[in-house]
Amino acid sequence: MLQTILLVLHVIVAISLIVFILLQQGRGATTGAAFGSGASSTVFGARGSASFLSRTTSILAIVFFANCLLLAFLGAQRTAPSSVLEHLSGDSAPLSVGGDAPPVPATAPAAGDTPPTPPADKGAADMPDIPPAKTSP
Q1: How much is the pTM?
Q2: Reduced to 3 states, what is the DSSP secondary structure of residue 122?
Q3: 57 part of a folded domain
């Protein structure tokens, strides 16, 4: 439950961090305002929105990184098996798809139980013959 809440908070903080970064003006925007082409924004005070946006961005970045660490810590604390092999090591019966698979032997097969290897020239016999090249007189 806590991990779900932190994950939702993580997404909200990430989206708001993107929005606040995109709202900030670039360094070249202040030079245009110095020559009279821009209007000062008085919504955020006399200093403009730079201090408010930069302070909010830094707070959101701190919350984002702290939330990343918390999510990583909670993700590492899972005790349930996370791989198929860990699931199989706890079970004593082998898994089968159709239900009619033969049981897996507990020991390795003996030396005489291995299937014979195919002859070495077997692969060459499967290949079709190459027709002879035609020569012109």
Answers
A1: 0.46
A2: helix
A3: yes
DSSP notation for 8-32: HHHHHHHHHHHHHHHHS--TTHHHH
Number of compact structural domains in the chain: 1
Q: How far is CA 15 from CA 11, 19, 71, 134, in A?
A: 6, 6, 17, 73
> pLDDT tens-digit profile of 53-88?
889 999 999 999 999 999 999 988 876 666 777 767
Evaluate whether residue 53 is within a structural domain: yes
In the block, which residue shows the tokens 């692969």?
123
The continuous run of DSSP H or E covering 94 comes out as: none
Residue type, 47: R
Residue 60: how many other CB atoms lie within 10 Å:
19
DSSP helix, strand, coil percent of the chain (3-state; round to 5): 50, 0, 50
